[in-house]
Amino acid sequence: MLNPEARELSDSLARSAEISDYDFWRALKSLDDELYGLERAHRPIPIDLIFIRAIVRRARQKRIFSGYDPYPYGAG
């Protein structure tokens, strides 16, 4: 469960026309790769990475499930 500040940030990211669906996918892939590398090396996982991944994941899911169109009416 995200705190209100993190929830507000993920909502803002989901509504942003400056971030594409690909950008979300790429960010999550990069975060997952980083976390995997840390786990394989038996290194501690920074809690910030976990929070960032949760925020980006929630923003991406919100955008996908809301049918968000960053360029409504063909403005893009």
Report what the structure shows.
With 76 residues, this protein is an all-alpha fold. It has one domain. Helix content is 68%, strand content 0%. The chain has 3 helices and no strands. Helix 1 packs across helix 3 and helix 2 packs antiparallel against helix 3. It is globular and about 45 Å long. The mean pLDDT is 88.
List descriptors.
76 residues
Count of alpha/pi helices: 3
The share of residues in helices is 55-70%
Uncertain spans:
none
Span between N and C termini? 34 Å
Number of strands: 0
Number of domains: 1
Q: Kindly estimate the percentage of residues that lie in beta strands according to DSSP.
A: under 5%
Order of helices and strands: HHH
Work out the radius of gyration.
14 Å
Structural class of the helices, strands and pairings?
Answer: mainly alpha
Brief summary:
With 76 residues, the chain is mostly helical. It is 68% helix and 0% strand. It has helices spanning 4-15, 21-40, 47-66.
Describe the SSE topology.
Blueprint: H1 4-15, H2 21-40, H3 47-66
